[in-house]
Here is the input.
Amino acid sequence: MITSEWITFWLFKIVYFTFFLLSTSAVVYTIACIYTAKEITFKKVISVVPKVWKRLMLTFLSTFAAFVAYNLITLVVIILCGITMGRNERISGKIIVFVIIAIFYLNGFVYLTLVWQLASIVTVLEDCYGFKAMKKSKELIKTVLYFMCKSYHHENIDKSTLADHLEAYLGEYVPLTAKEVQMEQYQV
Here is the structure.
């Protein structure tokens, strides 16, 4: 009885993640086409799904490995805290330590989930997948957090300065400062 329930559970999970990955690739591709004003047809969207399937699966397996490692590390921390606290520690102290660990664990779990979701999008839109896509998504989360903080504090974001700054990263354009511009004087 228990074995058949576990088999059903794992089959359901496999089907769920398969449809999740397929729908992720279809939605991301569709939104990218809308954003770039490309023509979208159902046939085009469906034809893209098999092309990104392998990359999405590798990204999913990478994030799965990260979640497993994260959970194992948390388990080790809980066991070590339990061993070091011993039996003589008051129960209220143990509860406080457990609550602190739980808060840190949940924050990390939500962060890893965000990285996973964004890594799936990066995998579809760019030529990186797996741990490389996770690294890229982690960096993108920092860019978004920066803009959210500036917005929350009602700070203006000068878009032209930002564009110049971003182009400087690409090596395409380096904005000149007033010190670098020298005007020659001509006598007429």
